[in-house]
Amino acid sequence: MTVTPRALAALLALALLVAACTETPSPSPADPAPPGAPTSPGTAPQADAPAAVEAVQGIRPVHRLFRETTVACDNGLRCEVLLVGDDSSFGLVLRLLREPGPGGAQRLRLGTYETTPPPATLRLDTVASTDLPALPWRNDADANAWVLDTPQAIARFIDLVRDAGTLSMGEGDAAVSVSLAGFSAALVFVDEHQHRLDTRGAWLQRGDRHDADVTPAPALPRLPGPPPPLPSLTGEEVRSFADRVRDTEAAVLRGAECDAPRAAYDIRRNDDAQALDRAHVLVFVACHMGAYQGSSLVFRVARDGSRSERIVPPSPPGAGIVEVGGAAHFGLLTSAAYVPATGTLSHLAKGRGLGDCGEAATWRYDGQAFQLASYSALRRCGGAAPGDWPSLWRTAD
């Protein structure tokens, strides 16, 4: 059976909905929904990028859903437990962040994207709490949240809420809440992932092991420095390179079912090109335009026009980044951009217009290939601040 790119996109959207009810993560949504079709002969994706990631992968990142609770741990063993409200508006958000290693810093953040009610209004299962408001909450005006940042206070918070079903704050119509389903399981997972089980400082499964026994933070991969400066392309050069790629790679664009230029809207106005190195330019061919973001196919093109190759930058190993129907996850880049001064290629895909879910990635050009520099994702919509998504990949840069 032949699976078209649009069918792949539908499968991708379906996988996201399934992920909200299971522990198996799925690729985050995008508008328009990548990925694109496999490339045709002669336009093979950059072949050496996955090997570059495997060489520095170290700890594999994890993105899991325990009922209503999201856990994200990156390649440096930094872990975050995240609960969001329903998917209709900016509701209550609970975040627990823990750095790796003995004495790894902890931070609990509770609030909303809008006006956060005072801790005095905290309730467990709709019952007013006297112990929770008594914790040493600190107001973080920049994050519009209430914060606990000492191990003792966070441990006490966990002990108070671990057996409850919901946590809420606010009065009347201003009340906001989150479900605590899966919260305890998520905490145990982080304890195990960071090798804290049965230590005195474990979040949930505490014991007599000394915290000094906890595995130290792993070394993060290092990427090359920025490339030498190059002259910017002129507007005429940008148009010339983009039109040439549209002609020579027409079969690839058709395979990805890219939107054709129309009289009402000429999608070519969103094409772009940037200087990559002395022999190549990076060309972005606009493929789809949605309500609030667009996607592009990316090509490395010889300046003399002799050759072009499609670029599909690498995904982080693990992290629930799966392939759908054999198409690479980053076959299309959303809101794609390249900054020649830093050699950084970027992708930003919002799950919905609010921007409270989605994914973001950056890659660094090393003169031969693009290496993964950062990746963050939140696949559960429901009130997080726009773009405030947990990290799954970072480097030492």
Automatic annotation (TrEMBL):
Residues 39-50 have a biased composition (Low complexity). Residues 26-38, 218-229 have a biased composition (Pro residues). Pfam families: DUF1176. Residues 1-30 form the signal peptide. The keyword Heme does not apply. Residues 23-50, 207-229 are annotated as: Disordered. InterPro entries: DUF1176. This is DUF1176 domain-containing protein. The lineage of its organism: Bacteria, Pseudomonadati, Pseudomonadota, Gammaproteobacteria, Lysobacterales. Keywords: Signal. It comes from Luteimonas deserti. The keyword Signal applies.
